[in-house]
What does this fold into?
Amino acid sequence: MQVYDMPDAGGHFGPYGGVFVAETLIEALDELRGMYERYRNDPEFLAEFEHDLKYFVGRPSPVYHAKRLSEHFGGAQIYLKREDLNHTGAHKVNNCIGQALLAKRMGKPRIIAETGAGQHGVATATVAARMGLECVVYMGSEDVKRQAPNVYRMKLLGATVVPVESGSKTLKDALNEAMRDWVTNIENTFYIIGTVAGPHPYPMMVRDFQSIIGREARQQMPELVGRQPDAVIACVGGGSNAMGIFYPYINDKDVRLIGVEAAGFGMETGKHAAPLTANSPVGVLHGNRTYLMQDADGQIIETHSISAGLDYPGVGPEHAWLKDIHRAEYVAVTDDEAMHAFHTLCRMEGIIPALESSHALAYAAKLAPTMSKDKVLLINLSGRGDKDINTVAKLSGIEL
Amino acid sequence: MSRIQTTFAELKRQNKKALIPYITAGDPHPKHTVNLLHTLVESGADMIELGVPFSDPMADGPVIQRASERALAHHVSLSKVLEMVKEFRQTDASTPIVLMGYANPVEAMGMEKFVQRAKEAGVDGVLTVDYPPEECKEFVALLQSQEIDPIFLLSPTTEPARVDIIVNQASGFVYYVSLKGVTGAKNLDIVEVAARVKDIRDKTDIPIGVGFGVRDAATAKAVAEIADAVVVGSRMVQAIEQSTEANVATNVAALMTELRSAIDSN
It folds into this structure.
């Protein structure tokens, strides 16, 4: 394989990605792209970014050898990239800092964001508070109900949370609404998209900011085990934590990259959020072309996952490309499998993982036993599970 | 000459401006759409923009989004919209129909199949909101091969160099979005719109339509003074939303009559 060099100047990853937005947004995206090009390799900008990642987020996040879990699975050694230890409890904050620093340089005093589970909303509200920027977060009204503690967190941090009542009242509708706000308030507003989707330059920019995860891991793994892992596993909704850990490994041909989507109630039921695994038709949504869960008429269908953060009908365009060129593999695990993995990690390692990250763990539980004990799996533990304890308790028939 | 070009040429000869109402196909119910199209023509429409319902209408405000949701509740697909146009064409051979919608339903049907079926149905123009010119060269070529006009948006933030690119790809007319925002947003600033329309006029002979903020007769009249066509979307859909099945046609006709006489009073 040649050295990987994606996307092209128009933001295309092969046939995927691009800029599929109304003319009203083109100028704002051009401005953003220009500013990002100017700063992405600017030493001062990067120094400020790294400073914040170190002192505000607490990076580098450790890679942890989950020995009891490895023993329990009875095969490959399990290493966890501990993004759950970041300030705000997930990987999302890495990207928010990058984009907020860009917003400051662009002179935009107002930040907007969309959120599903609330992690990206909390991270955005956190960074906005620290930088003294106004913050408005759009959240589907269904998710507002499901994720009440995160809604309150955002409010504590000074953000305004706007419940979105349209469509399926979840993440995709929050994204639509944030886009509408942006197009109306372009002059003073910066839109911080939380995942590697949306129109160019977002998929590239979010990937770049999140790739700190993989860059650290590539340094840490040789120190810990004397080599790179045999496979890197991460959950994929929009796919930002996966892109963040995959990207620096793309040219390491011997390292398998495995993205784990949400199979929800099961792939055969159709009630899932796994467009790559299902080989869903390719289409256009939220500014980019990618694999999309849709009906025969091209209407976007409602997805299902126990994890709000994976409950999205599309997937970042770079994942679509990595699937097509067979550089990454995409699989899916069900709600039940993810729940089982959630409980296993709690009991085996004293770590409560996010339900999103539990999907990556659930696939490791299947893969590890098929490998010998000298093999190494690196799992991106993208977030901690405190936010999910109400969901988990409810499923166990317990009222908190 | 296409039906759109013929219409604009005829209006110019009569020294009149075009009134282009927008309705969403299938709103309030699919059984009304063809009748409503005829009502629009009878009450003064020169051309009609027919919205194709989409589950995620990112560029539309709440009014048109609700219209989309009402239509989707009756499973109004792109295929059904084309059937409606075909039915309309059986008794109206002259009023141009422009389909306005999003890329995904078109891609789901397949671009070639869509263009062929649109031609058969009697569609005259296609405005695909989330297809900027850079991303739809193949689609534009297909449309033009069937003499269907690709309609493009120009916005207050579109840079002059980009206006050149867009007007060079467009035919039929170009659609100037009169404000920063989604459809049906606040009232437009007529002085600013006039300046921008003049800038566009300096670059092209293609007729210029203005829409996204035309809320009443007074705005329609003001826009008609500076543009070739007045597009009325959210206000029209609002009239439908606020009507019962029994009086929807009457109410739409009343609004159209009011807009028509305001535009013609110039």
